[in-house]
Amino acid sequence: MNISDLLSGNLGQQVIDGISQQVGTSKEDTSSVVNSATPVLLGMLKNNASSKEGAAGILSALNEHDGGILDNLGGFLNSGNTTDGENILGHILGDKKQAVENQLSRTTGVSNANVSKIIAMLAPIVMGQLGKQAGSGNVSSEGGINDLLGNLIGGGNSSGLAGNILGSVLGGGNKKSGGGLGDMIGGILGKK
Q1: Cα 142 to chain center, whole Å?
Q2: Is 101 helix (H, G, I), strand (E, B) or coil?
Q3: HSE-CB of 37 using CA atoms within 13 angstroms
């Protein structure tokens, strides 16, 4: 499964519908943020997983986020609870959270406040999907988590938006190339 699989079909529509209701944004705005933020979150996870400590931390987090959220997605979305999402974003984005939110707001035209709410609801879902994939693939090592993230990112759409945002907040990538997720990964890894 890759990013486009996660965002398309019934699961993606349920996520967009539920977040739209909770945040009060249109489905189009919510979809724009979700489709832009998901590869950014996965890219930041991939960046974090590039160190042994970061990969170990992600593996540990996946023990808590094993995909169970996907079994009661409607209940989660109806709760409107963003506490877990804020904690996840703190770990994934760290001090770059505000910069990512600003970039997502600028590129999608959705207010910073709404972007913040949307990605706080999205983060546990992304981690749940990642945990589900890790569990079904018996991922238990740092290399395994890197491979899984690479596969999820590698299948995503080819827009340069995620690469531009990641390049901006991580200081890499080419902000003008629009070269898609390949540039994003190159920016993360410091390669062209």
Answers
A1: 19
A2: helix
A3: 34
Q: Which helix (H) or strand (E) holds 49?
A: none
- Helices 27-48 and 161-170: crossing angle, nearest 10°? 50
CB atoms inside a 10 Å sphere around CB 105: 17
The whole-angstrom distance between residue 1's C-alpha and the CA centroid of its chain comes to 14
The residue among 33, 30, 35 whose CA lies nearest residue 17 is: 30
The residues spanned by each domain of the chain are 3-189
Contact 116, 33 (CB under 8 A): no
User: Amino acid letter at 163?
Assistant: G
What's the average model confidence in pLDDT over 2-11?
Answer: 67
pLDDT digits (tens, 9 = 90+) for 109-156: 999 999 999 999 999 998 888 888 888 777 777 777 878 887 777 744
Q: Region 22-34: what's the mean pLDDT? A: 95
The number of residues in the chain equals 192
Yes or no: say if 85 and 123 are a contact pair by the CB < 8 Å rule.
Answer: yes
Per-residue model confidence as pLDDT tens digits over 41-66 = 988 998 888 888 888 888 888 878 87
Percent composition of the chain: helix, strand, coil (DSSP 3-state, to 5): 80, 0, 20
**Close Cβ partners of 192 (under 8 Å, ≥ 6 residues apart):** 174, 186
